[in-house]
Design a protein that fits this description.
The protein is of the alpha/beta class and about 500 residues long. It is built from twelve helices and 21 strands. Strands 3, 4, 5, 6, 15, 16 and 17 form a seven-stranded mixed beta sheet that branches. The two termini are about 50 Å apart.
Length: about 500
């Protein structure tokens, strides 16, 4: 008898100490109408997980809420929240131009060094579509000193991050495209070349191509594309040969068609330097020495390093709008490594970034023992989380000092970002602020819903392993929110 009582006490202590008590608490089921949406014939074999909370954070409906799912880009909610917590919404990324040596007349005898510190915005996005904005700023710093010739090298220092270009678990099939570019502390134009294809010749001929920047020879295009009759369908095929900057083009394009595609480049710091050197030369500043990538940390305050100019990015609150509203994987991975570098005062790595995110998740009492993280964007097949924890994150962020910046980074239904073209025929226009997610076979949607009675509901919906059209899955997610909107 005493032994039984002792065992019961031990079991109670185990339950309370491990948090297993959560799985013993009864969860409210979804309403019959929501359950019916899940059980649609076309999604019978898909796996669904749904959690709905009220504004106080209490679960008011759940389905498979404690089962792990692939969140796709819904993971960016956790990444951006953790980075905001670590860096603050006023944080600005810096890119510096240093020089070693001395000047004689219009000649700089020595090296010019560009130090990258993880700025993802060195493109035209925040500079009135001027993609050469950073190049122009660095060029002007040299021109202002009367420099017309650099008798030395252009050096790109990328030591702020480690050299691992991709997180674990990314698919090789994705690495040719803008959404799966290599990550580096010194980057330019989201580490892509922007290809434009003009099918303006005769049927059977090869279409004309051009690319930004400068039709650069940093990449090599093998143009095996063919122009097809005007009524034919466009069939896309692009592949960057792994380990090279050679891109194979084998698309078929209907006559008169114009196609634009951003394709990834290998070795981003060299891409930056190659572009900058051409920019300087076009502006009348000659560079005598070869380009060099330096991945070693330096004491930048030493007297030998002369700082000519520092470029500062827009504040983090603005960059997060690109990350979440536009679901930008490149931004997610860049800010993840930056937060790690700032926190641990060492090279930023994905592994350290993930550790920081998990620490933040624990502070919000998410069940980190049941979360698998391999990246910051959700592209990795080994990244798993529950809708219960995603919704708990969204609930907890309402009390966070950076909640305004966090919520403002989310897409608004029918208005902007990845929700701009959704909910168009719905009463929910402007009433949903959320994060979308998609990888093959995975569609997710998590965020805040303002109901008909102006209640705020927090929701996380994940559909995994579906074979139906993604647009159909989207329609089911939207029907669920319509039901919640009308009911509460």
């Amino acid at each position: 008898m005493l032994l039984n009582k002792f065992l019961i006490i031990l079991l109670a202590i185990f339950i309370l100490s491990t948090g297993y008590v959560h799985t013993l608490q009864a969860q409210p089921d979804l309403s019959a109408s929501l359950q019916k949406i899940i059980e649609q014939e076309n999604t019978a074999n898909a796996f669904w997980s749904v959690t709905v909370r009220n504004s106080a954070g209490n679960i008011i409906g759940a389905h498979n809420s404690e089962k792990l799912v692939s969140p796709a880009s819904n993971l960016k909610l956790l990444t951006s929240a953790a980075v905001l917590d670590e860096l603050g919404s006023d944080f600005r990324f810096k890119t510096s131009l240093y020089a070693t040596g001395s000047q004689e007349g219009s000649v700089w005898n020595g090296n010019i060094i560009i130090r990258g510190m993880g700025d993802p915005s060195l493109s035209g996005k925040f500079y009135n579509d001027d993609r050469f904005y950073i190049m122009d700023k660095l060029y002007n710093a040299l021109q202002a000193r009367g420099i017309e010739k650099i008798n030395g090298r252009l050096i790109g220092n990328d030591s702020y991050f480690d050299k691992k270009a991709y997180p674990d678990g990314w698919s090789w099939d994705d690495l040719s495209f803008y959404y799966a570019v290599p990550i580096s502390a010194l980057s330019f134009n989201n580490n892509t070349v922007d290809l434009t294809v003009y099918a303006n010749g005769q049927v059977g001929e090869m279409p004309q191509i051009e690319w930004f920047p400068f039709d650069t020879d940093y990449v090599n295009f093998i143009n095996d594309q063919i122009i097809t009759p005007p009524n034919a369908e466009y069939d896309e095929y692009y592949q960057r040969l792994l380990g090279t900057n050679t891109v194979l083009l084998q698309s078929t394009l209907p006559q008169g068609y114009v196609e634009k595609e951003a394709l990834s480049v290998m070795d981003p710091p060299r891409f930056f330097l190659d572009t900058f050197k051409k920019y300087l030369q076009n502006g009348g500043i000659a560079v005598e020495g070869p380009n060099l990538v330096d991945s070693q940390p330096h004491r930048w305050t030493a007297a030998r390093y002369q700082q000519f100019v520092v470029h500062e990015s827009p504040p983090l609150r603005d960059l997060l709008k690109q990350l979440n509203k536009e679901s930008d994987n490149f931004y997610a991975e860049m800010v993840l490594k930056t937060a790690a570098a700032e926190r641990y005062n060492t090279q930023g790595t994905t592994q350290l970034g993930v550790a920081l995110v998990k620490e933040f998740a624990r502070s919000l009492q998410l069940d980190t023992s049941n979360i698998s993280l391999s990246d910051g964007s959700g592209m990795s097949a080994t990244t798993l989380i529950t809708t219960r924890d995603l919704s708990k994150l969204l609930s907890a962020m309402q009390q966070h000092r950076e909640f305004k910046s966090f919520k403002n980074s989310l897409a608004v239904s029918g208005r902007d970002g990845s929700l701009k073209n959704r909910f168009k025929r719905s009463s929910l226009i402007g009433r949903v602020q959320a994060k979308t997610g998609y990888v093959s076979g995975v569609r997710t949607l998590s965020g805040y819903l303002q109901t008909k009675s102006n209640e705020t509901l927090i929701f996380s919906i994940a559909t995994n392993h579906y074979t139906a059209n993604t647009s159909y899955i989207d329609s089911l997610h939207e029907r669920m929110l319509e039901e919640l909107y009308a009911t509460y």
